[in-house]
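Example noted here:
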Amino acid sequence: MAQRPTVGSIERLDPALDALVAADARIEQLATGFQWAEGPVWRRRSGDLLFSDVPANTIHRWSDSTGLTVHMRPAGYSGPTPPGRELGTNGLTLDAQGRLVAADHGNRRIARVDESRFTTATLAERFGGKRLNSPNDLVYRSNGDLYFTDPPYGLAKANEDPAKEQPHNGVYRLTAAGELTLLTAEVPWPNGIAFSPDERTLYVASSDPRRAVWFAFDVKGDGTLGPARVLFDATPLVRQGKRGLPDGLKVDRAGNLFATGPGGVLVLTPQGRHLGTIVTGQPTANCAFGDDGGTLYMTANDRLLRVRLRTMGRTP
């Protein structure tokens, strides 16, 4: 097999990064030509990766054996009056039964996909009788509850859009029984979301260039959240001109965060120490552990990338 092109570099700020990313790690470019690649999820059962191209309204499939194929198009909005340019799905995940569940940006909902017929079922689209903004990213807790973020990026004028019905940008929980609750509106621009391995901490990225931070919330016994605390503030990196904002993130089995943000994928300890950055050279939207859990797949602007790690993450 021909060797794939490599891009970027590994920026090392702390010797502890060596235990997570090898000194000779290579960032491989697997595919390119997308409008804005997002939301990757690895499917262990089928050995492939699904990811969104949000403006192109497409879910792509990639594997080593078959390369890149279109998995679903349209993946989101299919009507005559789109709410904005981000028509497709954003974040993707799998439920306990292995079914694809999407933050359906274009339709302003959380949807489950029946891949045998490529039809969708709405899981959540209104809170308090009002339409959600444009769900962005999502993560399941082990008890079957789904936590998701709802910024206004899918609306043409974001917070100023007349179609925005919610008075806030929220983080929500959809219980396994179907009850939708607002957990917090403290995050100005909620984006990526992930749990710590013990599920006692919920991390939420805020993609506000004026205050580009990752928040951490203690998860209470009933699944609700304590007050927000800042885990890491990347605003100085934004001011340095590094491309990208806090976006999607994943957590390895030791609790380290692989968080897309200014410069690429920042590697943070559970205490918020910045060990280094997987520099992609592009604004980077999201990432996912794949293969045996030791490969990090990254959606970076118009590209799909991957890098082999020395640590392991959970794959659905």
